[in-house]
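Figure 6 in text form: structure in, sequence out.
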């Protein structure tokens, strides 16, 4: 058990990568505060995972949510060993379409809420010698033309990770970030259908998109997160870990 008795907050944990990580972290002995916006999806996970998890429903556009999430974790488990900033709004935008309101929404959910969740949890992370794992995206390096605001938010998350790692190593709190490449989550599948790809698109991709012939899965990504959340990765901090099938990060071909 690589996370035995660690209390971990995971945002956006009722679907996709966050859900896969929750299931894997519990299997490794962790207690998880599942954060989400869907009560129904959250309840399903509670039913499945039992006493090792608790649920907190909070919209990250609401600036009071970070404190609410920390309070939920403390009420349920009494301590915080790690925070995973995984939730994100993945709305499409480019230079012509972007509005101030849409830009603010993406930055608030993807970046600002992550910063203030860390601020609210920091004293508790310091007590446990804990860590923060941010889930970025390889879009941080340039990004698809239709993911302008999203890519900017992920670049901000990357700088935030390294800035806080530099500032707070002396406090014994570590900050690392994983930039996933393309992962086949339910949302990603639906997004590509909306963009016009056919229903069987994951099986129709060429080597320029998936050189290993199969899309990466949320479970594979979750598996990699366990090392960074556990004490095995001590004392490494400020790491930007790119997990992609390509050898040249930033290439990210249009789909
Ligand atoms: N799937 C991919 O190809 C891929 C690639 C790179 C990075 N990522 C990153 O991985 C993370 C998880 O993505 P996913 O693919 O599992 O998609 P997902 O949509 O299943 O996960 C995102 C989660 O964020 C939550 N969320 C969105 N807006 C919210 C709000 N206002 N308040 C609270 N929660 C909100 C959603 O409810 C959802 O549970 C994201 O940070 C995403 O940017 C995914």
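Output sequence:
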């Amino acid at each position: 058990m690589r996370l035995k008795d660690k209390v971990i907050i995971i945002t956006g944990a009722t679907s996709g990568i966050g859900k896969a990580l929750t299931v894997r972290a519990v299997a490794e002995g962790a207690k998880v505060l599942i954060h989400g916006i869907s009560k129904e999806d959250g309840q399903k996970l509670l039913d499945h995972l039992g006493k090792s998890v608790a649920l907190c429903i909070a919209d990250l556009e609401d600036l009071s949510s970070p404190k609410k999430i920390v309070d939920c974790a403390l009420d349920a488990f009494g301590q915080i060993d790690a925070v995973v900033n995984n939730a994100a709004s993945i709305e499409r935008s480019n230079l012509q379409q972007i509005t101030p309101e849409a830009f603010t929404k993406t930055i608030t959910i993807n970046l600002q809420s992550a910063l203030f969740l860390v601020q609210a949890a920091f004293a508790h992370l310091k007590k446990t010698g804990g860590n923060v794992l941010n889930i970025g995206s390889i879009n941080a390096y340039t990004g698809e033309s239709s993911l302008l605001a999203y890519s900017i938010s992920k670049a901000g998350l990357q700088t935030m990770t390294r800035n806080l790692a530099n500032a707070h190593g002396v406090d014994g709190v570590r900050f690392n970030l994983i930039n996933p490449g393309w992962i086949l989550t339910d949302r990603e599948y639906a997004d590509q259908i909306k963009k016009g790809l056919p229903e069987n698109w994951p099986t129709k991709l060429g080597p320029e998109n998936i050189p290993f012939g199969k899309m990466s899965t949320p479970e594979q990504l979750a598996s990699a997160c366990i090392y960074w959340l556990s004490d095995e990765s001590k004392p490494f901090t400020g790491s930007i870990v790119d997990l992609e099938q390509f050898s040249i990060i930033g290439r990210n071909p249009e789909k």
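Caption detail: The pocket of nicotinamide-adenine-dinucleotide is lined by residues 12, 14-18, 36-37, 59-61, 86-90, 109, 135, 137, 180, 182-183, 185, 187-188 (CB under 6 Å).
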